[in-house]
Amino acid sequence: MKTLLLATALVALSGAAFAQDVVRLGTEGAYPPFNFINDAGEVAGFEREVGDELCKRAALTCEWVTNEWDSIIPNLQSGNYDVIIAGMSITDERDEVIDFSQNYFPPAASAFVGLSADADLKGTVAAQVSTIQAGYVAESGATLLEFATPDETIAAVRNGEAAAVFADKDFLAPIVAESNGELMFVGEEVQLGGGVGLGIRESDTELKDKLNAGIQSMKDDGSLNALIEKYFGPETKKF
Questions:
Q1: Contact at 8 Å (CB) between 190 and 109?
Q2: CA–CA–CA angle 40, 43, 47 (5° rounding)
Q3: I need a surface site. Which of 15, 27, 81, 208 has the fewest CB within 10 A?
Q4: What is the pLDDT of residues 39-55, one digit of tens each?
């Protein structure tokens, strides 16, 4: 869903990650319900459950690592962790520097949220830095206002810095629902990206195969759809 627009050169790393004693799963921890930090200070959310189940099915010992979004690909390449599981859209641009698993969340809509139905979507629009939504806004003719975290994009609308925020609809929906009418969807939904996949170094082909097998088995037995419905509701697109 979110997409880094990076021109980072691929760092060549030797050895397959799955051969390590521990496979490290890197996430942002700030993008509910995909991933967030709970009251106990632990990674939680949809991707925590998906990641734990994939590690179980692939017979991998895994640990979770958090990393800021704007450096999440470079730190995969440099070996700070072995897999990105962070609401990351599969795109051609990113595929030039890392590899992907098959998607574990289907392609979904992006949407605008503002304070009123007549919010100026050609004015100033907030988006998280280095995301596919930020790229879309920049090309739309609107004035792009980028922030490091998704929470800051919402705050920009509330405090009047931006007329609207553009982000994954699945991220925005609970925020709109809990705003008691303060925030609302405006304009048309936009389809972006090829679904959410695991980011993996291109050298780690055996790890990719193990994780792909786990994702496919979760699709086949319905457990992935059950988790999607648990965190995003029955109306969310499923496999």
A1: yes
A2: 145
A3: 15
A4: 999 999 999 999 999 99
17-107+194-232 against 109-191: fold identical: yes
Q: What CATH number does the domain located at 17-107+194-232 have?
A: 3.40.190.10
Ranges of beta strands (E only) in the chain are 23-27, 30-31, 35-37, 43-44, 62-66, 83-84, 99-105, 109-114, 124-128, 143-147, 164-168, 184-191, 196-200
Q: Return the CATH fold of 109-191.
A: D-Maltodextrin-Binding Protein; domain 2 (3.40.190)
Secondary structure (3-state) at 239: coil
Domain-wise residue ranges, the chain: 17-107+194-232, 109-191
pLDDT tens column, 213-234: 999 999 999 999 999 999 999 9
Give me 101's structure tokens: 């698993």
Please tell me the pTM assigned to this model: 0.85
